[in-house]
Amino acid sequence: MTAGTALLGLAGPIGLSIAGVAIIGGGYLLVKGMFDKETLEKIYINVCNRDINSYNLAIIELHERIDRLNNEFGIIRNAIDDISTFGNDYDKMTEQQQYTLGAYVNLMNSSVQLLVNPILGLQPKVTENDYDRYMDGKEEAGRFWKFKGLIISLANMLYEIDLNDDEKQLLFESFKANDKFLEDHKIKRDEFDFDIMRQVEGVLNSR
User: Which residue from 33, 17, 15 is spatially nearest to 173, judged by alpha carbons?
Assistant: First the structure.
């Protein structure tokens, strides 16, 4: 997987974190009290801080790995020069050339992986496989199939975020009251019930 492909996977969690700002500033909170607003703000601050910490760690790791790669570029340049003299037919290469070619290929692959791995660590933590594994054999799997994407997105948003029962209920109510959230996830207001939040929690607890 390339670094570019890995970055595409970040859009979902980041989008949901940003959407929290709109929820906090939306009409729902004009009805709710200041305590609820502060509670929601705390939840989204925790989500943002979690993501910022992950990005900062990835940046530090990337800098360290780039420094390491800078030391290997000379070897890679020499490898390219050597390989160009081997010809295009692997079967006609000497045993030493074949061995050298394999060593250079491994070096280049490991160099690419040095940059990709930190980015892969930023990808969503909850995947379709996690969801499918959690739902496997459950009677309610059919009911929640159409909400699979939403449940996975919310699970990634709330990954490693500790919420008490009141906070879960408040977050649910804020989602349900937010027209943009419902529109983006193609779900009707009367379809979005607290059972969806329970499935989110179930997916997270099953990992």
Answer: 33
Single-letter amino acid, residue 157: M
Query: Residue 71: what residue type?
Result: N
Give 81's Cβ-side CA count (13 Å radius): 6
> With bands split at pLDDT 50, 70 and 90, how would you rate the model's confidence at 32?
low
> What φ, ψ does residue 10 adopt, rounded to 5°?
-85, -15
Domain ranges of the chain: 35-120
CB 28 within 8 Å of CB 178: yes
pLDDT in tens, 60-106: 988 888 888 887 777 778 878 888 888 888 888 899 988 888 888 88
Calculate the dihedral angle through the C-alpha atoms of 198, 200, 205, 207, rounding to the nearest 10 degrees. 150
